[in-house]
Amino acid sequence: MIQKRYADDDLLSLSGIQHFHFCKRQWALIHIERQWEDNLRTVEGHFLHKRVDEPYFTESRGDVVISRAFPLVSHNLGLYGVADVIEYIRSEDGIQIPGHEGLWRMNPVEYKRGKPKIDERDEVQLCAQAMCLEEMFDVRICKADFYYNEIRRRIHLKLTDELRTLVCSLADEMHDLFRKGVTPVAEKSRNCKLCSLVDVCVPKLTKKKVSVDKYVRKHVMSACEKDV
User: Fold this and answer.
1) What's the whole-model pTM score?
2) What's the DSSP call for residue 180?
3) For 8-181, which CATH class?
4) Parallel/antiparallel/unpaired status of strands 100-112 and 58-61
5) How many CB atoms lie within 10 A of CB 68?
């Protein structure tokens, strides 16, 4: 029997790997300190997924069977979550699925509110979903798809060895920080303006080598001077 790397009690949220790649401090504020605030982008994202996520709902479209809100888990990565959509496409080298004859190839599809990113934050999330499916069903998944709502079309993702290695590395680092309960210092960038947690994070305060007392005293005095 294959030894599990992570027990059920050690599993972390799969969706967090996207936060982690975008900003490790953002991930820690959400998943370690349990802080969260919505902005327009997160609300739009929740609305989009609400339309997609209908647990255990399946439909057939010819040679494609669609399953929504599919539960995922990987004890090798130590992650659990939900896939927006799993498409089962009729294929000679696929797997059997209940209630349908023949063999079917699994294709995960992730819905996103915006458009393709310039970094790999979306890619690592979708690749992690595929790696969960591979572990759960003993299959090999070579590609997956995004649907970006802003451009209203699909983008294909090739699941390369390099991307899989990055997912494993990020997952291990997430578990290490979670065990230690460490929230990294802020790395201020233009992305901070897009983050719903910018007021909680206070990147200027955490990055500078200045005491909290000095920071508060400076801003309190400034406010008092304006009132005079």
Assistant:
1) 0.79
2) H
3) alpha beta
4) unpaired
5) 18
